[in-house]
Amino acid sequence: MSVTSVTGGLYGSQLQFTSTSDISGLTSAQIRSLTARQIAGLTTTQVAAIATDALAGLSSAQLQSLTSRVGAFTTSQIQALSTTQLSSFTRAQIGALSSTQLNALTSSQLTSLSATQVASIDTTQLAALSTSQLVQLSTGQLRSLTAAAVAGLTSTQVAALSTDQIAGFKVAQLKAMETADVAALTTAQIEALSRTQVSSLTLSQLAALQTAQMAAIEAADLSALSVSQVSSLSASQVQALDSDQLAGLAPSRIAALSTTAVAALSTDQLRALSRSQVMSLTNAQMIALSSEALNGLDASQFDALTARQIAAIETADIAALATDRIAALTTLQTTSLTTAQLRALTGGQIGAIETTDLAALRKTHWDAFRTDQVTSFSTDQISSLRRASLTLLSTGTVAALTTDQIAALDASRIQSLTSAQIGALSTE
Question: Do residues 330 and 307 lie in contact, with contact meaning Cβ atoms separated by under 8 Å?
Answer without folding.
Answer: no
